[in-house]
Structure formats: structure tokens, C-alpha cells
Amino acid sequence: MKKHKGLYIFILTIITLAFIVFVAFMQRSFMNPEFSASGTDPVLTNTTSSKDSESTEEDAKQNTDEASVKEEESQNTGAEEDEDETPTISTKVVNVDLLTVRSEPDVESDPIKFVTMNQALEVEDINHPDGWVKVTTDEFTGYVKDKFLDDVE
């Protein structure tokens, strides 16, 4: 054992250094803006420059202006269309073990709660093109994909 003590220390030192290099490389990869832009990074990091954020704010303002114009146009079309577009509310149950309820109808929005298998939810169909519906319980209101819900039998 005493003969090989130096060899053991050398091997452990090499393994430790290799681990440190690996961790440093992985941190660099996860902080790389190109990695985040590829869509494979599940945790979005704030890597935009101030110019990008200024243009994003301008785009958001323009989208808000366009949305308000569209809303005014839809209000001017008459009350008859409003009667036809009443939301459909029904009760459905969750058909997966654990379902994330999100704050907006988008997979990148913040999760607000989790619901479990066979939990009953009040569902409002919002006619979202990707199949999102608005769910409500006594505790919260959020959005889930309709494919994870079944009609109450």
C-alpha cells in the first residue's frame, strides 16, 4: 500500500482536475447565448443586449397598439357577434399523473400550479390555435393543453 500511495494520489489528482474542467466546460456551455438560442435550453437566461431589449419593447408596444385597434374594430362590428362568441365552459378531469398549469397559454410562461390525475377542473374554451384552454379551480386560474383533459363521465 505504501508503495502505491504516490500513484493513488496522482490518479485522484487527475480525476479531480478532469472533473473541474468538465464542470467549467458545462457552465460555459449553458451560459453561451448560442446554446440558449438553439431552443434546447430548458431554462431561459437573460442574454439580450440593451439594444435588443429596446427593440423588443418597441415591438411589444407596436403589437399592443395593433391589438387595441383590432379590439376597437371588433367592438364596432355589433353586439350580434359577441352573443355568438360566448365562451364554452365545461368540467373536465386531468388524464395525466401531473399537469403543469401555466400563467399564459404558452409552454414558456411561468408555471403557477400543478394538478393531478382525475382532478376536476372548470374549463373555458378560448379557441386557441394550439389547443390551450383556460382552467379554473377555487384556488387558481391558468392555462393547460386540452389534450391532457377528458370529459367527465
Automatic annotation (TrEMBL):
Domain SH3b: 99-149
Region: Disordered, residue numbers: 36-91
Annotated signal sequence range: none
Residues spanning the membrane: 7-26
Composition-biased stretches (Basic and acidic residues): 51-73
Keywords: Membrane, Transmembrane, Transmembrane helix
Superkingdom field: Bacteria
InterPro entries: SH3-like_bac-type
Name under which the protein is recorded: SH3b domain-containing protein
Organism from which the protein derives: Oceanobacillus chungangensis
